[in-house]
Amino acid sequence: MKTIWVKVDPWNKDLVTTALEGGADALMVPEGYAEKVKELGRITTIAPDGDMIPGQDLSTITITSMDDEDQIIQAQAMGPVIVDTPDWSIIPLENLIAKGARVVHPAKSLDEAKTAAGILEHGVWGVLIDTPDPAELKRILAFLKGEGTTAPVVPVEIMEVKAVGMGDRVCVDTCTDMKPGEGMLVGNSSAAMFLIHSESIENPYVAARPFRVNAGAVHAYTKVPGNKTRYLSELGAGDEVLITDYKGKCSIGVVGRLKIEKRPLLLITAKAGDKQITTICQNAETIRLVAADGKPLSVVALKPGDKVLASLEEGGRHFGHKIKETITEK
């Protein structure tokens, strides 16, 4: 997930409230306005009298030559650097991204934000949105926060479901009430994740909890914003996760809490082309996978030949980041 700053200079209350509601990380405002921001919401301010002080906590450097790149590398060791490329040259930004520099690039439009976020398939560390239009700001924030992104899902064929004994499983309670057909992508491998349905289905024995995904065992991967993965067990309150529906449409959910408890587990094996993929879930009727039409399928009723949805990808992961290398996970 990109760091998102919004420039509000001159002061504009509508821009501030739009930035707060859209999930911006910080606001750059004129001197004397940091306290006005705090009256509207809790957020980091960048101002001479703010939480971050330009010139002290934050450098701004305009790239005019390769020498400037070296200056930026040195400066970002002390903190993020706002990097301006007046002619929107991509090469200097590519060089800085490749070196892992924490650079923040200004963007005046949605197109510029998309370019900054997609350079080298990784994007700049942060984006400084600079537009006087609240509607354009809202569009840019929605894009950068991951709304409208997709994680393509395809049907895979169940081969076997078997009990594997007791283990620690994770319930992810989010701050979002999910609808039927929505859940989280979870799997034993980062290259193959099953769509685990939320507990939004009524049951005669337990009330629906549409904010919850009984996701799987502690070791399993799940997809999070920024095309990354995390272990279920390392999630915590305030972390962001990817909520995905049966059409592959994604939105961002915030974790409210994690529940890790010892429960009987099932190993689910499916076939995706010539590959076998697996995940481990709790052995209970309220845990469901998802059919191609969005209907939930209880794991205790699954049988060989059933089709469920999964997200597949090539390559591997290193600390959650997608990389191009040969990795075998069994």
UniProtKB/TrEMBL annotation:
Residues 156-330 form the 3-dehydroquinate synthase C-terminal domain. InterPro entries: DHQS, DHQS/DOIS_N, DHQS_C. GO terms for molecular function: 3-dehydroquinate synthase activity; oxidoreductase activity. It comes from the Bacteria. The keyword Membrane does not apply. It holds the Pfam family DHQS_2nd. Residues 1-142 form the 3-dehydroquinate synthase N-terminal domain. Keywords: Amino-acid biosynthesis, Aromatic amino acid biosynthesis. This is 3-dehydroquinate synthase. It comes from Desulfatibacillum aliphaticivorans.
